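Tokens in:
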């Protein structure tokens, strides 16, 4: 019987079986090939640090408010799912058996969806011929990276500092170069990730445990700092260092999912004295693109597909571990306990 993945309580995962309902005329069913684990957002759910355990987002007021009923029901994990169509309803003409599909849905053996459903990227559509499942697993993450580059308004000749060389950071390095950045500094604690950043086009890499990144960059640039810094590690210390790294009047784009209090963030220091602009890069929860209506999530998605399909945007060697879906607990524990060993972990089916 097929199953889907839930977190029962912090660091405890369970597989819950389900039965397939008969397919409706407007529905499509697909069998999972791979699903990607988010090393940021999902890990907060796995660890029990997410605000959504006790709060809910009021979309009208745009506020997180205390939940009226804080239950201990298991919650789903996952939002990067790739599979092949196995069955189509009688009214479906957009998909055929064998098509490759990507869905921003949870870790699960199968997915059933309607041709009329509208998700993050608009109506579901099959991925083009020649697109691989491995590329598909990066679609949502690459969208986050491209959104951050758009929010940064990177210009030809800009110097960009990117903090966090996980999958999103490695994609952002490439996209910054494609967008005209003349120099990209890549910052990460883990040697393997710094090596990948250099391979993907970073001009200089830094280990923040070994050097003061802001001093190194500011003392080596006539402008006294990067024009833009993009923070993608989820660390408040990294966000603070990103603020310290940009020039006077520079911009910092915070594109991570931050957790808890921000004791490492000192807004009375360089942020205040250098009049730094701090932007949140968030494309979910009905947030419009800053260049709407010309850009939206659907266009971001289409752009990423073409960049990956053409080979301009690379993902080779980013997948470091493929772990069977039934051993998902091992995968999450690996990311949680040994981040130095991983770049991107995927579940295979």
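Residues out:
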């Amino acid at each position: 019987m097929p199953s889907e993945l839930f977190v029962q309580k912090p660091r405890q995962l369970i597989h819950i079986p389900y039965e397939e309902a008969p397919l409706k005329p407007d529905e499509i069913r697909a069998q999972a090939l791979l699903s990607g684990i988010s090393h940021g957002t999902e890990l907060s759910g796995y660890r029990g640090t997410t605000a959504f355990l006790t709060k809910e987002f009021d979309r009208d007021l745009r506020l997180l408010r205390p939940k009226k009923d804080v239950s201990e029901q298991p919650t789903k994990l996952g939002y990067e799912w790739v599979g092949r169509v196995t069955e189509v309803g009688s009214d479906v003409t957009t998909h055929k058996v064998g098509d490759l599909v990507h869905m921003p849905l949870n870790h699960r053996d199968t997915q059933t969806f309607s041709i009329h459903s509208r998700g993050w990227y608009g109506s579901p559509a099959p991925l083009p011929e020649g697109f691989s499942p491995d590329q598909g697993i990066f679609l949502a993450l690459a969208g986050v990276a491209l959104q951050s580059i758009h929010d940064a308004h990177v210009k030809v000749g800009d110097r960009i500092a990117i903090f966090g060389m996980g999958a999103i950071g490695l994609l952002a390095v490439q996209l910054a170069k494609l967008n005209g950045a003349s120099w990209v500094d890549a910052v990460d604690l883990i040697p393997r990730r710094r090596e990948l950043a250099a391979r993907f086009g970073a001009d200089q890499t830094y280990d923040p445990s070994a050097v003061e990144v802001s001093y190194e960059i500011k003392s080596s640039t006539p402008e006294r700092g990067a024009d833009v810094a993009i923070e993608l590690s989820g660390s408040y210390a990294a966000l603070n260092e990103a603020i310290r790294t940009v020039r006077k009047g520079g911009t910092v784009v915070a594109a991570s999912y931050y957790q808890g209090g921000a004791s490492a963030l000192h807004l009375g220091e360089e942020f205040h004295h250098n009049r730094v602009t701090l932007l949140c890069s968030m494309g979910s929860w009905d947030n419009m693109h800053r260049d709407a209506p010309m850009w939206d999530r659907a266009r971001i998605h289409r752009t990423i597909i073409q960049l990956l399909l053409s080979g301009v945007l690379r993902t080779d060697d980013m997948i470091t571990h493929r772990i069977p879906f039934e051993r998902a607990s091992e995968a999450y524990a690996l990311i949680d306990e040994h981040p130095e060993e991983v770049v991107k972990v995927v579940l295979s089916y």
